[in-house]
Each structure stands twice: as C-alpha cells, then as structure tokens.
Amino acid sequence: MHEVSVMADLIAAINKELERYNVVSVKEVTLVVGRLTNLGAEQIEFAYEIMSKNSILEGSKLVIEEEDVKVSCGKCGYEGPVKNMELGEDSHYQIPILSCPECGGAVTILAGMSCCVRTLEIEEEDQCSN
C-alpha cells in the first residue's frame, strides 16, 4: 500500500507550506492524482484520515481530483486522451493503452502521472485584533 508513504510525503509538504502562515485551521485539501500513479482514492482517503489525526489537518476535507491520461505522438502529431482496455464485461476498471490512438506509434505522456496538492483552504489567525 504505497498510498501511506505518498500521503506521508504530501502531509509533510503541506505542513511545511503551512508554517509560512498563521494558520488556525485547515478546511480543505485538494489533491490531483493521475490515473497512471495507481493510487487508490479510498486508500488515500484512509491514509489521510489516520495520518492527519492530532494535527492542524485533522477534520479537514480531502478532495481528490482525478487527472486523466493525455499523450502526444511524435509520429503523427496526435495530442489528446488515450484509449482504455476494459477488464471484463462488467468491470469498471480500465487500463490506459500507452500508444497513439491514431497511428499506434510511441507516445510521450503529457498528463496522468501527477500526485500533488492543488489547493489548501485555510483559516488564518486574525492579525488585526488587539
């Protein structure tokens, strides 16, 4: 379950960023997670819930935005999404096919491998109070 180590790194990065502000609480954390990372949303949410306990992040909402796979083909110039292979008739699991959907050529991956914090919604300490 590599979601735990990924979440540990993300939480460390978030905490480092929060040190720059007088944060009272964190309301929401939005992550972008690419389909090619093989990170499971449920596992990420579980790791976040456990690892944010007793910290400024405890109780904050975690929003996960899925990043679709986008490629470019040097052979025909195609740029866009890939085709997916379905796993079974009733399956909702798909595996991206990493070749050009137009000509079958080799591709460069443009999107789908991200795992990063997009936004933090925080409440800062009121600096104007006397």
Describe the strand arrangement of the main beta sheet, using strand numbers. 2-1-8
Largest sheet: 3 strands, mixed
| Number of E-state strands | 8
- Mean pLDDT, all residues: 91
List segments where confidence is low: pLDDT < 50 over at least 5 consecutive residues: none
Tally of alpha and pi helices: 2
In angstroms, what separates the terminal alpha carbons? Answer: 49 Å
What assembly state would you assign to the polypeptide chains in this entry? single chain
Task: Please write the string of helix (H) and strand (E) elements.
Answer: HEHEEEEEEE
The share of residues in extended strands comes to: 35-45%
Rg over CA atoms, rounded to whole Å, is 19 Å
Shape: elongated
Overall structural class, as computed from helix and strand content, comes to alpha+beta
Q: In which range does the helix fraction lie?
A: 10-25%
